Amino acid sequence: MTDDRLTAIDLFCGAGGLSQGLSDAGFETLWGIDHEKNTKPTYEANHGCEMTVGDIREEEPPDLGLEKGELDLVAGGPPCPTFSLVGKSKINSLEGRDNQSDERHLLYEEFLRFVDHYQPKAFLMENVEGMLSAENENDEPVVKTIKEQMRGERQVADLDLDLNYTVRVQLLDAADFGVPQHRKRLFFIGNRIGADNPDMVEWQSHRSPRNEEEKKIKYKQDPSKRSSEDQHTLEGFVEEEEEREFPTFRKDIDSKEPWNTVADAILDLPPVSPDGNTPPTKAEEYELGPISEYQYWARNLEEEADWEDQPLLNHECRGHNMRDLTLYKLLGEGTSYIIGDIPEEHQPYRTDIFPDKLKKQNPKEPATTIVAHLYKDGHMFIHPNEARSITVREAARLQSFKDTFEFPVARTHAFKQVGNAVPPLLAQALGTAIRAEIFDRPVQEQELQKAD
After folding, report:
1. Rg of the chain's alpha carbons, rounded to an integer?
2. CA dihedral 268, 357, 277, 314 (to 10 degrees)
3. How high is the pLDDT of residue 372?
4. What pLDDT does 330 receive?
5. Residue 71 in contact with residue 64, Cβ under 8 Å?
């Protein structure tokens, strides 16, 4: 660990999207844990720390070689399917058991148990948008209850915890932070050192497009030829905003970029059936160099490196039957991107229930939310130009994993890991804001990349 890096642990770490983003923001993850054994090969292939496979409810916090209170950040996203949206009194009818026989804690309570053990200076907890409307057994908002528990104003089940954190809760869309995907997630940011928790609206780097021109693929340009459309005034001096490399996260950026789109993210990747195989299989070599700014970033090439020597990892999709391939071909610009708008006689599903069961991704927009269910069903993530569902690598690009991030597991496991992850770019934005506003230690991007 370099002196400039802060320490963190990642609970419910999965493949490590949160760990990756925090690393890019200047944190060193010391340990991770997840219950899914298939995440271990992926996590350990991409991160330089120990990862435990186990049930967090049965695990004691490990010795990190730090005194209590020295850990900088506890981060993690308790899985939403296990989080009760209705409270323990209603678990009985939902799960067929009573509270006496159910010795489990709600998994977010395990997150708080680890916070209590380490007493970190700050924490970052992620969960689903649906938590905002959830209520407990007393018809109280779940988010309000959790905030009170984090502040030490309410007991956490039967646990004797010492929590005294100021907390900010925000719903964020990953597209506002450079991720080529609309993905709304809820984040709890807390600290116990008297700092103001960041308002992530002030850290947004991207915005909705203002016109059709801004929806087109954003080709990478020579930085010397780029100019900023806005200027800002500081104490009477007018300064032109300096050119920014992607990604750049700063508070109150004057000129935000238009959202990154599906085209920006994946259209440099080759077809998966270059020999005309049916069903589509996979491709293992790049055929073109990167085109957009996002693609240059995703390739993660060393300066002056030859892209032709870079291996193409995980560029593989599931097979399809001819009926599916024909339906996929039917969708797109000039017809509709969702099957619900196609004439009724060609509908494979009831359109009153599944109008978007088949959805081709629009190349001029950010992708729809990548989900873990993609490993079972790819119909909602059809390639914009090819009659097939997207590959693992394309899903990873849309989640903002770089091409050098490897998923050394079976395709089904890889899809699930990608869909469950926190987008690394969103995590990097959060980590950068936490580093700057809570720890007063701005990120020096180039130095930190060298430290990696």
Report:
1. 23
2. 50
3. 86
4. 82
5. yes
The answer to whether residues 5 and 451 touch, using CB atoms and an 8 Å cutoff, is: yes
For residue 191 the two structure tokens come to 């600290």
Task: Summarize pLDDT for 131-176 with one digit per residue, the tens.
Answer: 898 887 788 899 999 999 999 999 998 899 999 999 999 999 999 9
Give how far Cα 193 sits from Cα of 72, 75, 114, 164, 438, Å.
Answer: 11, 17, 18, 10, 8
Cα(372)–Cα(268) distance, integer angstroms: 24
ω into 279 cis (within 30 of 0): yes
Delineate the domains of the chain, giving CATH numbers in brackets. 6-204+424-446 (3.40.50.150)
Q: What pLDDT, on a 0 to 100 scale, did the predictor assign at position 80?
A: 65
> How many other β-carbons are positioned within 10 Å of the β-carbon of residue 311?
11
Catalytic residue among 13, 49, 80, 317: 80
Separation between Cα atoms, residue 420 and residue 18, nearest integer Å? 11
Strands 122-128 and 73-76, sheet pairing: parallel
What pairs with residue 232 in β-bridges?
A: 239
| Total residue length of the chain | 452
Triad 351, 357, 358: Cα angle to 5°: 110
Ranges of the chain with pLDDT below 50: 1-2, 81-105, 223-241, 446-452
Widest Cα–Cα separation across the chain: 68
Q: Is 292 in contact with 283 (CB distance < 8 Å)?
A: no
Distance CA 8, CA 427 (A): 13
Q: Is 80 a catalytic residue?
A: yes
Report the pLDDT value the prediction gives residue 3, as an integer from 0 to 100.
60
